[in-house]
Amino acid sequence: MSARYGRGLLHLAAALDQPGVLDAGPYVALARLAERGGLDFVTLDDSFARPGPDALGVLCRVTPATRRIGLVPTVTTTHTDPFRVQAAVATLDWVSGGRAGWRIDVSATEEEARLFGRRPAAPAETLWQEAGEYADAAAKLWDSWEDGAEIRDAATGRFLDRDRLHRVDVTGTAFSVRGPSTVPRPPQGHPVRVVDATDGHARTVAARHADVALVRAAAPAQAAAVRDELRERARSSGRHPDSLRVLVSLLVDLGDGEFAAEPGHGGGGPRPTARGPLYRGGPVDLAELVAGWHADGVTDGFHLVPVDPHRDLERLVNGTVAVLRHRGLFRTFYPGSTLREHLGLARPANQYAVTGRTP
Amino acid sequence: MTAHRQLHLAVAFPGSGPAGVGPAGWAGAHPGSRLAFASFERLAHTAERGLFDFLLLDEEPPLPEHRGRLHELDPVGGPEPVAVLNALAEVTTGLGLAATVDAAVGEPYDLARRLATLDHLSAGRAGWRVADPADARPGADFRAADHLDPYGRAAELVSVARRLWGARSPGGAARPFAHRGRYFDIEGEFGLPRSPQGQPVVIQAGESERARELAAASADVLLVRHAPLETARSRHADVGRRLAAHGRTPGELKVMPQITVVLGDTAAEAQERAAGIRRQRITPQYALYALERIWGTDLSGYDPDGPFPDTAPSPGPPDPPEAGGSPSRDDRRLALAARWRTLAREKGLSVRETVIEASGRQSFVGTPDTVAADLHRYADEGAADGFVLLPQLPADGPEEFVDRVVPLLQERGAFRTAYRGGTLRSHLGLPQPAQDR
Q1: Residue at A299 is within a domain
Q2: For chain A, what is the domain count?
Q3: Which helix (H) or strand (E) holds B56?
Q4: Which of A24, A50, A154 sits opposite B191 (nearest CB)?
Q5: From start to end residue, where is composition biased (Pro residues) (chain B) (predicted)?
Q6: CB nearest B118 (choices: A57, A90, A184)
Q7: Is residue A78 part of a domain?
Q8: Residue A230: pLDDT above 50?
Q9: Is A80 part of any domain?
Q10: Residue of B nearest to A50 (CA)
């Protein structure tokens, strides 16, 4: 399998979710901790179905307190306006100097639908198809300003070069938007799109539109199979498979001490639970697992969701990451400044740009 | 008359919105400065140093079109304001943070949640300027705002948002809500408790009868145009009567004219600077563009520094009838053209000189002393509760005002010398909204 030989750098991300927390302080503290560990990015999940703040707003707040780490809020494509959402994600990218991501999700419950009263709940298959159209419209709006469209030419009094702005007119199944956007093309071109591809319906969107796919898998073979499938589907939709990073997403509980893995599940390896695969054990064992799966070409890295945010993230950074760094398996500083650079992903070309024009 | 009535002060960021820099006044700024976080941070720090009540960031309007093509002269393109304000909350501690968000689009649950998030993360410093539906510009409908009555929708949106903000008990326990109105039919539980200031401050703008009435019914701050003292006083009294009719007391709605200020060491120097700013704002290209917008035809053959056109614009197709029996857009256009032609003929002005002459004077021009005295007089004589400073050029922050006028207002006892509370409501002296029953 070529993927094993094409193994790239190890990528690590962590979730900042802290149910019930409305103050900025705890989010800022955890994001700084994760940045000290050199993680590629942090995620903050969001759903209208449970109490809590707007994730994109929280990560905007974190931005001035951090310098390098990627910031990836969840924003649903159901019940929201694609024009506004792409503008908000682009703004996070501008404010953070190219560190924004967007975890694309859908809202399938009747409860959420009633908060908006615009349409009844729809099945996941429909919602993910809409999510694909939505992601495509967002990319068009990000590209609707070419880089350098703002010319400020004092001689002619022109602020803009209208030839470098592009009309967008998309009618999807559940929305219609027109552009150009009101926000110029963000620093990364396209902020990094993250899709949890565990659900089969999400996999098409992940293969087509995601820069990072998350896979909740408890066993290496399962993770490798989904990764192979995603790469193959990315290839068949015209992308280079290496433009997609696949990370295994695990719940981590590092509270039981260094070697206190529960008996019966293979020395601390993850096991399936109702909330997804859970790793319970010590931070050094977790480093073993991370290094092993990555060395075997099963995954490009891990997205780790702490069960106890403060305790587990602290142990993750000071234990697991320290071990991986000591072995030369993980970065000790950020060589790049944007999230795309951390992930080794190229800045995408503008779909509207005419090549060969003088800048 | 109170001897020392306290003023409230705010500043708007040079966006391209209705409160923005406007005509091509961007010369001299750096590319990307409308997006760099450092620009916003600098402005916020200056405003906070000046102990301003709040900073107002406008939502970017859709890109303007002119004669079927995108218009190239105005500065456009900027960030989404709520996202920027969340970041500014990290680098400020007292300043109120207000965003203009369109009420003609957007869903109440999502909007209320995003603003409540800003309010919590900033510990009670959030404000929401409900964009005046009358501000709707060409192209504004591209975000699916297909409503027959934008005022009705805006009013319902504000009232639903306020209901959601108060929908939880003080202890934070969720209480279900249900709303069935003309525009929204929603139910469930709101995901956030009341913020440290109860709920975000609601700011409305507009001169029209309906806008004023809407503000008197439910807003905390009303933004208005600058007007001469007498006019401003009678406007203020009118707002006070409307407030009373809604069972509210005069202090519950702050009336804040949006003003431009030019300072100088002498009155003559200030006048000279003011004229220079007007010239800088109206470039030759912009002067022709302004003319084309009124004439509705291609005037690119005219020399901006040459004589004013001697033909009147031709009447366009009649507008659909507008609410309130106000003159139609086409009538206003023709009247404006007639005024400009008269001005050019009487004073012998070129195209550009006419546009500069007609494009409006700055609100307060003078030495720091006279400007402070003028502002104080507006407050003392019940013509304004405070002011929102509009920048005139992109590089033009409130630094000079903060350094030279604020200390004089403080000496007069007309402006705070420290933030007394932590929330925007406390800065504005507004009561906490009553708990939803």
Answers
A1: yes
A2: 1
A3: strand B54-57
A4: A50
A5: 306-321
A6: A57
A7: yes
A8: yes
A9: yes
A10: B191
Which of A299, A28, A328 has the alpha carbon at shortest distance from B87? A28
Residues at the binding site of B for FMN are 100, 147, 151, 208
- Of residues A345 and B5, the one with the higher pLDDT is A345
Q: Which alpha helices (H) appear in chain A, and where do they start and end? A: 2-5, 25-36, 55-62, 82-95, 110-116, 124-143, 200-209, 220-236, 283-295, 309-315, 322-326, 339-343
Decide if pLDDT at A207 tops 60.
Answer: yes
Q: Is A244 helix (H, G, I), strand (E, B) or coil?
A: coil
Contact predicate B257/B390, CB 8 Å: no
**What separation in angstroms does the CA of B325 have from each of B4, B224, B320, B321?**
42, 22, 11, 8
What are the Cα distances from residue A36, in Å, to A41, A59, A66, A67, A253? 12, 17, 10, 10, 20
Write b or e for each residue in A200-235: b if 16 or more Cβ atoms lie within 10 A of its Cβ, otherwise e. Answer: ebbbbbbbbbbbbbbbbbbbbebbbebbebbbebbe
Nearest one of B124, B114, B107, B89 to B201, comparing CA atoms: B124
Question: Binding site: what residues of B are annotated?
Answer: 100, 147, 151, 208
Residue ranges, comma separated, of all CATH 3.20.20.30 domains in chain B are: 8-266+362-428
Q: How far is the alpha carbon of A23 from chain B, nearest alpha carbon, in Å?
A: 5
CB atoms within 10 A of CB A65: 17
pLDDT for the residue numbered B171? 66
Whether residues A116 and B107 touch (CB distance < 8 A) is answered with: yes
Q: What is the ipTM of this complex?
A: 0.94
pLDDT score of B83 more than 70: yes
The minimal CB distance from A91 to the residues B31, B79, B105 is found for: B79
Please state whether the peptide bond connecting residue B431 to the residue before it is cis, i.e. omega within 30 degrees of 0: no
**Pair B420, B65: CB distance under 8 Å:** no
CB atoms within 10 A of CB B137: 13
Structure-token pair, residue B56 = 């107002």
Residue A14 gets the label, from left (phi > 0), alpha (psi -120 to 50) or beta, of beta
| CATH of residue A333 | 3.20.20.30
Distance, in Å, from the CA atom of B251 to the CA atom of B2, rounded to the nearest integer, reads 14
Share of chain A above pLDDT 90, in %: 81
CA–CA gap between residue B46 and residue B42 (Å, rounded): 6
Fold (CATH) for B8-266+362-428: TIM Barrel (3.20.20)
Angle between helices B81-91 and A82-95 (to 10 degrees): 30
Facing residues of B256 across strands? B223
Domain, as residue range, for A281:
2-107+191-343
Rg (CA), chain B: 22
Q: State the DSSP string of A95-129.
A: HTTS-BEEEEE----HHHHHHHTSS----HHHHHH
Element holding A159 (H helix, E strand): strand A158-160
In which region does residue B376 sit, left (phi positive, over 0), alpha (psi from -120 to 50) or beta (all else)? alpha
Which pTM was predicted? Answer: 0.92
Coil vs helix vs strand at B281: helix
* CA quadruple B81, B289, B28, B368: dihedral, nearest 10: -80
